[in-house]
Amino acid sequence: xxxxxxxxxxxxxxxxxxxxxxxxxxxxxxxxxxxxxxxxxxxxxxxxxxxxxxxxxxxxxxxxxxxxxxxxxxxxxxxxxxxxxxxxxxxxxxxxxxxxxxxxxxxxxxxxxxxxxxxxxxxxxxxxxxxxxxxxxxxxxxxxxxxxxxxxxxxxxxxxxxxxxxxxxxxxxxxxxxxxxxxxxxxxxxxxxxxxxxxxxxxxxxxxxxxxxxxxxxxxxxxxxxxxxxxxxxxxxxxxxxxxxxxxxxxxxxxxxxxxxxxxxxxxxxxxxxxxxxxxxxxxxxxxxxxxxxxxxxxxxxxxxxxxxxxxxxxxxxxxxxxxxxxxxxxxxxxxxxxxxxxxxxxxxxxxxxxxxxxxxxxxxxxxxxxxxxxxxxxxxxxxxxxxxxxxxxxxxxxxxxxxxxxxxxxxxxxxxxxxxxxxxxxxxxxxxxxxxxxxxxxxxxxxxxxxxxxxxxxxxxxxxxxxxxxxxxxxxxxxxxxxxxxxxxxxxxxxxxxxxxxxxxxxxxxxxxxxxxxxxxxxxxxxxxxxxxxxxxxxxxxxxxxxxxxxxxxxxxxxxxxxxxxxxxxxxxxxxxxxxxxxxxxxxxxxxxxxxxxxxxxxxxxxxxxxxxxxxxxxxxxxxxxxxxxxxxxxxxxxxxxxxxxxxxxxxxxxxxxxxxxxxxxxxxxxxxxxxxxxxxxxxxxxxxxxxxxxxxxxxxxxxxxxxxxxxxxxxxxxxxxxxxxxxxxxxxxxxx
Length: 738
What we know:
By secondary structure, the chain is α+β, with helices and mostly antiparallel strands. 56% of the residues lie in helices and 10% in strands.
């Protein structure tokens, strides 16, 4: 995973520059207002700080749609260029108006980085460590703040501090960011797949994963192009074909699915669970004991929660699916690759796309996991005649004997498997009808206790000492399944090339799909609450807040002035954030996003209450300074463990690929509007109601946030992005029924 980690580190430099800018302006504004005589004009002072937020808001309005059009990487390159230009203009700044213009340009760069870096990391990171890597922007931002505060503190000790130099230094690290984005960062593989550029996507995935075989994940990325559709939750018992028997010892059940692995002659059978399992109950009835105890609990939260309760722990760096079967679903005997399956190869339409009958193979193996390649010596026949830009597939006729279903599958990360099944049955008139479905599989239960969990299932008899698992499955129509082609070639399934789906572009109607709407509610809601919890207002004005709280008392004996002392305290505060973020990075994929939010928000509330009390009760100068400083430090450290990184992580995870850019832009707009309001109004609020009133408002908002997270925010750790969006679709439709 070294490739994905390095790419995430480089991408997060954009957030380091944002943190650098936040801290620099917080220190420099102390000197800016003196030079331009703004002590009596808090509105202009607030505007100097908020102008970068206005710029970020402006560019965010179209950054999502543009990133879906030109890609994620070009937008990150543009961000580095804007950072560089803004640093040069701030270094010049002869008056307030030029400074405001520079801050606006700076905001453009910040807006692109903050909006697209989490998306880029989510689309390139393995699901097992996606939370860890997507916490890097928070770590980089706090690291940039610390370095910047150290620089500002050193300059504040000078007789005549130069605020223009403080702000202009931003151009130096932005040059490094530009070089790395141009020469090192690859394009997002999910974006490449959405444009039908399969060859490039495969090469990027091979680089990111450090292995040649990425066909399973590449196929998953193609499935992620779908939005909406009917999805159902099913459960199967999977075991060796010669062991999983019914009362008659046969496996001729018409509903069984045959799975073929890499070892010749070995096969497994997946049989649907007849009873109602706990996971299925959530899907069908939207209720479990946990939800029944909380009247307003969102069915989406309950559904995700039941998955994490039933499935093995997914927080570690390893996949735990079917450990005793090894690569049970792997595709056997990959053949020599002779044909490129990419947008550029559409000129070969007359020859069609390669099937797996010895004619060659597609460059990305996209079709290879669709149906098993087991060579049995039996007749092999077409189930999908070759069609212009369609994808031909062949199967063994033996796989469909007895009305069963043929499936092949491969790992897609986080312990999940991607599979397709093709089934044929006769209707009442004796006419054959088929169905082509995509399934996401994941083992249920805890390894080592499988038999005990299955003994009570109706209609299932398990032999002694047998190996089997119980698996949950999300079953839906494949993303590239074409009903038009199906009507034309009714003998079997057909799939269109991703470039055809990409040519249509994102559909705005997709935003109104139940799952997308539900995800937008979660994303927008948590962004609003994060901003009105007041973190950015506190960060921007930390030196002034601490100066007003009397921190100079703590450092007066050293001979450091009030302004320098407040900047030093801010530097130490951001330094303490870094270990806290390190803890969050470790726990993000183990304990999960929801757990961290529910654990840290109460601490935020407590620290804010202490700040309110410290500013209302006369405790003496020293006690007041100590309580204020400790409370602010605790607030920051807990914030960066939960409420800081997690809203952006969630927003980058919960939307389908085709509308991810647009939805992220909507959430980011909410983020920036809230940021502008909080930052611009803080100086006014401090003058009107004082620190106690401001922190009292923040405490109330954090309390509302705790309730919102408990009722509405699901746990997404360890799950592939495409599986997360499927669960949102299922849960949202269930919520609509309820």
